[in-house]
Design brief:
about 240 residues, mainly alpha
Length: about 240
Amino acid sequence: MTTQEITDINTFILPKSFRNWSNFKEVFAMTDMNRLFINSMIVAVVGTVGRIITSTLAAFAFAFFDFKGKKFWFSFLMGSMMVPGDVLIFSNYVTVSRLGMMGSYLGIIIVYLVFANYIFMLRQHMMSLPRELFEAAKIDGCSNFRFFLTTVIPLSGSILVSVFLSSFVGLWNIYLWPLLVTNTNEMRTIQVGISMLSSAEQLSWGPIMAATLIALLPTVIIFTISQKFIVKGLTAGAVKG
């Protein structure tokens, strides 16, 4: 839509003409959208892979091993799910700053590498797997890590896809933390870049909505393609408590 259509008192569901691409051109002129897109993709993909590694290993330990303090640590983990993430922003900021990670991909990603919700989901799913598989593998001389890679991971395909997609969308849409720990435009994510299109002097609704559409495309495509995996994965751990 043109600026006149956006600010018109009448409501338009569709633009009068689909030949107006000035909003998209203005987005790329005002910001380095390609760089912002790449930054968000790196954060979302690397952070998600890290979450899957930590979550699957922790869930495997809670589901198949008996160790001292197991119930306590699992209860502690579940308790952490009730703590809002915004409460930890200040302490996380101080920690990342002291470690010298400000303005880096690692500084953005490190606070998201462990996510209690995914550990719980995967643990619930792994507890539904037959215990006899683990016992038979031990009798045959299979190591714990080999059993994890060759048996548990293949049997957890659906829920892992669900975790990947859910985590990717969540990390793709983060705004506040990247805004705090990055101080150069080269390290900004796409959500932060959208906010840079507006200022106290000017509010460009056309470019803002065009940039929002660009930011939405990856998540819309992922949900459209993988909707059945998300539903199947979210219900995979509901068999056994």
